[in-house]
Amino acid sequence: MTIYSLYIYDRHCTCVYYQDWHRTRRPKPAVEGGILPAVSQAVVAPPPESNNSTLAPYSSPRNTLTSASGVVVAVSEINAQSTASPLLQAPPSPIGVTSTGLAFDEEVKLVYGVVLSLRNMIKKLSGRDEQFVNYRTSAYKLHLFETLSGYKFVMLSDPGTESLRFVLRQIYVGPFLEYVVRNPLITMDSKEYGIDNEYFRASVDRMIRGSSFFP
Amino acid sequence: MNSSLDHLSPTTSSARFSLPSKSTSASRPNIYERNLNKSRLSEVSAPSFSFLFSEIVQYTQKRVSGINDLERRLNTLGYRVGSRVLEITAYRAEFSSKAPKREIRLLPALMAIHTQVWRAVYGKPADAIEKSVENVDEYMIIDNDPLIERHISVPRDFAGLSCSSFSAGIVEAVLDGLGFPARVTAHHTPTSTYPTRTTILIKLEKSVLDREDILK
Amino acid sequence: MTTNSATPVLKLSSTSFMAIFGLWVINKAGGLVYQRNFADGLAQLTANEYLVLAGTLHGIHAITSRLSPIPGQSSGAQVIEGETFKINVLLTLTGTKFVLLTSPAEPASTIDTLLQKIYSTYAEKVMQNPFHTPEMPIRSEAFDVSLGGLIG
């Protein structure tokens, strides 16, 4: 069983975090302004110079992320420029990586749109306050876990996987509480920044790699 | 085997027809090359027939102005089939006989329609022949589950329409061909066990009844 | 099935029972051409609401096939799960969708077989009926009766 990617959305419908594993078909980098800073380095276009200067006053870990200029193809360069752990960078792209043809910011919106529509559809059909759990296509399976505070954890895995809701819940009660909620340098609900930070990324990564689903 | 005839065959000479490829037609000759007398194994797929008949009804429906008109047209189409069916069933039944015969009495003729014609067209005999109690000139052939009605669901605003008018046309042609002119109509007479049960009503011309009386 | 399903005990059991709640047929343009409920357990919606949901499902189905994280073609969503029911989708080569709402316990193989049977019934009773206009709402007594036999 394989886990492909993780998206976290806040209650304002914006993507605040993204991470992927074994994903062999990637989106194009997001257009500038398409997604918040500090969501994931792997999927943003290199910011122009002017942008860098406005972000300069910040020195929080998340800021090193946004200021690191680099795209997926230029991993060694990023390492040279930033002091951040290699985990924060995109994993070196395998040779066979192809593109979905979608920019990352569009992909993020589509994923959210699908999740929200299905959530509403399930509620409407059941006539109760029932949650949408997952859906499966021939190529992948999408899992949703929604917190009471409106955060949505979305995970893509291979279609044969059992429900991964509990994994998403573990991410929520573990790394998310520990390194996002209790992290004073992360402004939750900021509408301006994502929640990416070194410890959270490393911790989620460790959790996923350590789980029994990881090949 | 018949390579010299290839250019004459309507199927091998052109690609316009999507008929079975040569390899299959070698083991099983296509419909034009089959022996006229062999009726076994010359079956047509039921869905293909259903789709064709469905198209016939739709085509006809576009060109008529009411249920009666539609039934009349289906009857006419059936009539053209019936006159050919009579020809081939008569040929198949009698070609080997030393003294070929033709039915001249009504009941044997009806029996022939009930059994031979139905089997040739629908692959099974009809279910009953009845004589009307009220009218001496009326006879009925009953099919509990007509093949052509199997997938047809007549909408409410077409109430009373029976697509078996096509079968009625066949019967009318056969009777005509045998010398029993009649007016034949189809009626939907469902029962709880047979929701598509259909009655083919035959109203014979007076001349036929008169002749029957003489022959008695 | 149960006349007094208001009691919590029966409500619980109704979710663990295998059940088929309903069937939709969605044409290739996303229009709902057939909708029928078979068992209680889901909300009773108006015809218009079903129409909207079918349109939504049609759109989602198209998007889900584009979100695949791996190379190669992905189908659209085949099974969508809620907590007490799931939505099973069969997309035919011609673009018609058969959507079966069932209890989550219903095994995938049973549902696949059933959807195939429904498809073949549709081919017979709907497509071979001269009074049916393709892509338009299905009004066929024969189809209703045959489905009743399949699903009960």
TrEMBL record, chain A:
Cellular compartments per GO CC: endoplasmic reticulum; Golgi apparatus; TRAPP complex
Any Pfam family the entry gives: Sybindin
Cellular localization per UniProt: Endoplasmic reticulum; Golgi apparatus, cis-Golgi network
Main subcellular location: endoplasmic reticulum
InterPro entries assigned to the protein according to its UniProt record, in alphabetical order: Longin-like_dom_sf (IPR011012), TRAPPC (IPR007233)
Keyword Oxidoreductase on entry: no
GO terms of biological process kind: endoplasmic reticulum to Golgi vesicle-mediated transport
Family (UniProt): Belongs to the TRAPP small subunits family. BET5 subfamily.
Protein name (database record): Trafficking protein particle complex subunit
UniProtKB/TrEMBL annotation, chain B:
Keywords: Endoplasmic reticulum, ER-Golgi transport, Golgi apparatus, Transport
The UniProt record lists the keyword Endoplasmic reticulum: yes
Keyword Flavoprotein appears in the UniProt entry: no
Alphabetized Pfam families for the sequence: TRAPP
Gene Ontology BP, a term: endoplasmic reticulum to Golgi vesicle-mediated transport
Ranges of compositional bias, category Polar residues: 1-28
One cellular-component annotation, GO: endoplasmic reticulum
Positions of the UniProt region annotated as Disordered: 1-29
Compartment(s) of residence: Endoplasmic reticulum; Golgi apparatus, cis-Golgi network
SUBUNIT field: Part of the multisubunit TRAPP (transport protein particle) complex.
Family: Belongs to the TRAPP small subunits family. BET3 subfamily.
Name of the molecule in the record: Trafficking protein particle complex subunit
Automatic annotation (TrEMBL), chain C:
GO process terms (BP): endoplasmic reticulum to Golgi vesicle-mediated transport
Pfam families, A to Z: Sybindin
Regions annotated as coiled coil: none
Keywords for the protein's UniProt record, in alphabetical order: Endoplasmic reticulum, ER-Golgi transport, Golgi apparatus, Membrane, Transmembrane, Transmembrane helix, Transport
SUPFAM superfamilies the UniProt entry points to: SNARE-like (SSF64356)
One GO CC term on file: endoplasmic reticulum
Subcellular location: Endoplasmic reticulum; Golgi apparatus, cis-Golgi network; Golgi apparatus
Keyword Transmembrane helix: yes
Keyword Transmembrane found: yes
Transmembrane segments: 6-26
Family affiliation: Belongs to the TRAPP small subunits family. TRAPPC4 subfamily.
PANTHER family hit by this protein: TRAFFICKING PROTEIN PARTICLE COMPLEX SUBUNIT, TRAFFICKING PROTEIN PARTICLE COMPLEX SUBUNIT 4
Subunit structure: Part of the multisubunit transport protein particle (TRAPP) complex.
Official protein name in the record: Trafficking protein particle complex subunit
